Amino acid sequence: MTAAQRYLIATIFSLTVMVGVGTSTMPPALAAVQRIFGIGPDASGVLLSVFTLPGLVLTPLLGYVADRLGRRAVVVLSLVVFAVGGLAALAAQTFEHLVVVRLVQGIGAASLGALNVALISDFFEGQQRVRLLGFNHSVLSVGTAILPVVSGQLAAFEWRLPFVLPAAGILVAMAIVVFVPPASARAHEAASVGGSVRWRSLGVLLVVSAVTYALLFGPFLNYLQERIARLDPAAPNLYQRIGTMIGTMSVATTLGALFVGRLARRVMLVRMLQTACVLYGLALVLFVVMPSYELLFVPTVVFGLAQAFNQPVVQALVAALAPAMRSATVLSLNRMAALVGQTLGPIAFGVVWRIGGLSTVFIVGAVVAVVCAVAVALVKSPSLESSPQS
């Protein structure tokens, strides 16, 4: 690997860290906002929703523009808007002002979670692409583990500072200009092999992406804490226990994603994705049957491994299904599917909880995961279904 490629990869990974800045920094920041403005968690939660909302519309639109005008222009402009939203937080005096700030940040961040993957797909192919997507997911997992700690320290000093972190996007934008070569839509079209998208396979992958994010934000993030509390209601340090479990999942995801590239040399990507879905189902069942807090670490690690295999493999499959001239558009659809799952997961499993209780949440999630494993068999692509490299 050349020095230019190493700088390129480092720049893309820094862009990936920015993807986590808008969400992972929020838990301490929201607690500070509640204290400053005297509001409850239902009101402060608006700051999460208003950030995610623009992505549902702008992510596919900006992906299409990136295919027409080139990745670099869209990413740099997005980072500048993201950074402006961060700097505007310094002047926030009211909660309503902060809502507007978060909306601007959400507009700037809308394209980042798709275009970082598109850049990897543009410049790397085959097993190297899969390996880098695995590393990219590890970088994101490490960021989501570290950023809340940084945010907490900043919030303790000044409540606005966690909202200012997107201003670092200016530095990343400068690195994009220096280290990411321009690539025009014409060059993408010339490099493409065939112009059609395999829509059935893509549809299955988008559904799987939405469902697995719904499982993450539904049963795992929303209801695992309730499971921990019920196992030992009188146990001290409940919040620390919950944080430790979530951190364990992130560590398992980080470590597992590092080996995705190696596994892809021996196992076809579709089989890896099916394995991830089965692991989701297994973990969710184990959350129900494990009799103690300590034993919950077992399904937590299994769930983390499912995450490690799922997202890099889905991204690699989606990138392989899309013609090069449409890759940003198609990858943006995958990002939008993830946002849909992230948004609807807590709502859907909230209905399940009200109907059947806590155990039903995990069991229904497990059934849905197994159905996804079966559906993935419909994903067909000659370039994907060829024999793995030895």
Topology:
Elements: H1 3-24, H2 26-37, H3 41-44, H4 46-69, H5 71-88, H6 95-109, H7 112-123, H8 126-157, H9 161-164, H10 169-179, H11 185-191, H12 199-231, H13 238-257, H14 260-264, H15 269-289, H16 297-321, H17 327-356, H18 358-375, H19 382-385
Helix pairs in contact: 1-7, 1-8, 1-10, 2-8, 4-5, 4-6, 4-17, 5-6, 5-7, 5-10, 7-8, 7-17, 8-13, 8-16, 12-13, 12-15, 12-16, 12-17, 12-18, 13-16, 15-16, 15-18, 17-18
Radius of gyration: 21 Å
Content-based structural category: mainly alpha
Broad shape: globular
Strand content: under 5%
Under CATH, the homologous superfamily of the largest domain reads MFS general substrate transporter like domains
Oligomeric state, counting identical vs distinct chains: single chain
Helix content: over 70%
Largest sheet: none
List SSEs in N-to-C order. HHHHHHHHHHHHHHHHHHH
Here the CATH topology of the largest domain equals Growth Hormone, Chain: A
Domain count:
2
